[in-house]
Amino acid sequence: MNRKRKILIIGAGGILILALLGWLFLFIISSPYRNQIPPLPEMKSLSIPLQEQLSQANRKARRNPNADNLGILGLVYHSSANYEKAKVCYQLAIKKNRSKWHYSYFLGYLNKEMGESAGAVENFKTVLRENPRAYHAWYYTGEGYQNMGLNDKAEMAFKKISNLREKNVPANATIRVDYFPLRTYANYQLARIYMKTNRIDLAEKTLNGILKDNVTFGQAYRLLGNIYATRGDI
Questions:
Q1: At what angle do helices 218-231 and 200-213 cross, to 10 degrees?
Q2: Which of 78, 34, 32 is nearest to 53 (CA)?
Q3: What is the pLDDT of residues 20-69, one digit of tens each?
Q4: N or C terminus: which one in the chain shows less Cβ crowding within 10 Å?
C-alpha cells in the first residue's frame, strides 16, 4: 500500500470517527428531552389512522427530539384530546427552542380549553414577546384576564386589536378562521367589560359601532337588548 493511499484511509477513518463522535454528542445532549417524552397510550381503543399518526410522530420525536418533532407530537395528542401528554410535548418543544412561538400558542390554547386561565395568559404573553402581531394571542390574553376578573388588563389586551383593519393583519397571523373580523369580537368583549364596569353608554356606543359594520352579528343585538332592559327602555 503506497503512502498516498494510507493517508487517504487514515483521513477517511478520522472523518468517520469525528462523525460518530458528533452523533454521540448530539444523542447525549438530546437525551434529557428524549427521556421526558410521554409513553404512548394504550393503542387498542384508538382508531387505526390515529394509531399510525401517533406512532409515526412518537418515533420521529424520539429519534430526533427537536422543537418541531416534539411540537408535532404534542399537536397529535392535542387533537385526540390527550391533553396531559400534549402539554408535556409542547413544554419540551418550547424549552428546546423558545423562538418557535407557535408551540407556546398551542399550549396557551390547551390551557384555555382546560380552564387554566393563568397558564393561558402566560403562554400567550410568551407568544407576544416573540411576535407582537399574533393578534389572536392578544384576544385570548384578554379572555384569560376576563376569566380571572382582571378587567383593566383584559380591556388593554382587547384594545390592541379593536381598531385593526383586515388589510393590516398579515395572513399568517390568523391561526383560526372566523366569520367576522377579529376586531369585531374584541369590540364585543370590550362592550361586555364596559357593561360590567357600569359604563353603559360606552357599551351601547361600542355595540352600535359593531352593528354598523356587521349587521348580522347577533351577539351585539342580544347585549344591546340587555342594556335597554337595564335602563328600562323596553
A1: 150
A2: 78
A3: 444 444 455 556 789 999 999 988 888 999 999 999 999 999 999 999 99
A4: N
Q: Which of 200, 202, 199, 208 is nearest to 226 (CA)?
A: 200
With beta carbons less than 8 A apart as the criterion, state whether 213 and 184 touch: yes
Residue 156's identity, in one-letter code, is M
Cβ-based neighbours of 228, under 8 Å, separated by 6 or more: 234
Entry pTM: 0.80
Mean pLDDT calculated for residue range 83-103: 95
Q: What mean pLDDT do residues 202-214 have? A: 95
Q: What is the chain's percent helix, strand, coil content, to nearest 5?
A: 75, 0, 25
The candidate with the shortest Cα–Cα distance to 125, out of 142, 141, 148, is 141
Task: For residue 9, give every residue at least 6 positions away whose Cβ sits within 8 Å of its Cβ, in sequence order, or none.
Answer: none
Per DSSP, 173 falls in state G
3-state SS string over 21-46?
HHHHHHHHHHHHHHHHCCCCCCCCCC
C-alpha distance across the termini of the chain, in Å: 104
Q: Cα–Cα distances in Å, from 138 out to 133, 155, 193?
A: 9, 11, 16
CA dist 31 to 24, 36, 52, 66, 183, Å? 10, 9, 24, 11, 44
Q: Provide the 3-class DSSP secondary structure of residue 20.
A: helix
Distance CA 146, CA 112 (A): 12
